[in-house]
Specification:
Radius of gyration: 16 Å
Distance between the termini: 22 Å
Low-confidence stretches: none
Helix content: 10-25%
Oligomer: single chain
Shape: globular
Largest sheet: 8 strands, parallel
Strand content: 15-25%
Structural class: alpha/beta
Number of helices: 4
Strand order of the largest sheet: 5-4-3-2-1-6-7-8
Length: about 200
């Protein structure tokens, strides 16, 4: 069985020891996770985050995925051979939520794991919901992120988009790890999606 762990930056992942995954799982992370730990694959939808990641010497063995419009810059001009384009969506839709430009790094990281053909994907740090009515991200208040007191992000796009991935990849088992009180959206309640408390 081939396994991956997709690591989001929600505050719940503070309680997770990521090193226990390193030997048996492929690590797929989002944005500034490279500041704290090495991952095999890193998704950066925002150009500032991609630039920061490529400037970090610790990412020299990490494959970094960027939007199509940034690919030429990083691959051809910066001559970074580790840069790849984000995977294509597995469906065509006609709403704003279906537009690839409105997909973020978290959704794309889960999509990447699905397109890579893993049998089992654990999902950590995808909290969705705010903490104390402010943005839920362990990097808030740091460079390239929202202020620590910024308003929380509406999770409806994330819920819809990740639900689409679960639907289109029924042969992949997705295991969501979060705190016991975390509530799984109804859109995610599918036969191939499981919840395990941290």
């Amino acid at each position: 069985m081939t396994k991956a762990v997709v690591i989001g930056n929600g505050e719940s992942r503070r309680s997770v020891d990521l090193e226990k995954y390193r030997n048996e799982y492929v690590l797929i992370g989002c944005n500034a996770i490279h500041r704290d730990t090495k991952v095999n694959h890193l998704v950066c939808c925002d150009r500032r985050m991609a630039w920061e990641a490529t400037e970090n010497t610790e990412t020299k063995d990490t494959t970094i995925y960027v939007r199509d419009q940034w690919f030429h810059f990083f691959r051809k001009i910066q001559k970074n051979k580790n840069i790849q384009q984000l995977p294509s969506l597995p469906y065509n839709g006609d709403t704003k939520k279906d537009d690839p430009e409105h997909w973020g790094s978290g959704g794309y990281a889960i999509l990447l794991s699905a397109t890579m053909g893993f049998d089992e994907v654990e999902i950590i740090g995808f909290d969705l919901y705010p903490v104390d009515q402010s943005v839920n991200n362990i990097y808030k208040g740091t460079e390239n992120y929202s202020r620590a007191d910024a308003q929380p992000v509406d999770p409806s796009y994330w819920i819809y988009q990740i639900g689409k991935i679960f639907h289109y990849y029924p042969n992949t088992t997705f295991i969501i790890r979060n705190h016991q009180t975390w509530v799984m959206p109804s859109e995610w309640q599918k036969l191939n999606v499981k919840f395990v408390a941290l």
